[in-house]
């Protein structure tokens, strides 16, 4: 699905100081991959490159097997949920969720509305379609933003810290919900997080980014699915978390 070889990126304001270089990773169809790393190491920048919002300054990026040096060719191919939920405050929940349809104009509006109603029910958000984002809780807003990302109908989803600002209980609920959704939809997910337990609970593999010329380290999460929070206390989970924590610490200091 994604193949990245020796990728580098530098902002034009500091061309001598690349945000990252020598970055290589692969993502297979249907995988759940988390990306962790110190603040500022370039995780969101990488997502913007994959989504087609920025052009990489070196190396090779293949999405769906195609080498794409022109970022605009990737626009609309990848569903991208940035760190802020970016729901439009003047639009109702339904009108926010209809945005991908408005941009693509694929199929009839009536069908798009019907699909979104079904998704709202499935996401536990029935009865919210006429509400405005400011009338929703943080957890509901995140689910609406994710529903909108899914409604774009792309096979590849980039989720940038979608649960970063939520309390522990809501986060757990949304983890369960996201895992169920992922196993039924079979989408490919790239997920940025600072929460190592979250990364271990959700992912098939984890990439630890170092920034600069530090590249990435890869960790396989060899824990059977379906996963549950009780697994956090199992020796294998604890050992993986300790290893990841240590490597993260080493990547910073
Ligand atoms: N538009 C910009 N112009 C110049 N530098 C930028 C710009 N946007 C981001 N940066 C810098 O690029 C680096 C990487 O930023 P990025 O947001 O990708 O990091 P991150 O790993 O996602 O951080 P966090 O975990 O805090 O979200 C940072 O040092 C940031 O200050």
Automatic annotation (TrEMBL):
PROSITE patterns according to UniProt: ABC_TRANSPORTER_1, ABC_TRANSPORTER_2
InterPro entries membership: AAA+_ATPase, ABC_transporter-like_ATP-bd, ABC_transporter-like_CS, ABC_transporter_ATP-bind, P-loop_NTPase
Protein name: ABC transporter ATP-binding protein
Nucleotide-binding recorded as keyword: yes
Record CDD domains: ABC_NrtD_SsuB_transporters
Ranges for domain ABC transporter: 2-236
Pfam families tied to this protein: ABC_tran
Organism encoding this protein: Paenibacillus helianthi
Listed GO MF terms: ATP binding
Keywords linked to the UniProt accession: ATP-binding, Nucleotide-binding, Transport
Database matches in PANTHER family: ABC TRANSPORTER ATP-BINDING PROTEIN, TAURINE IMPORT ATP-BINDING PROTEIN-RELATED
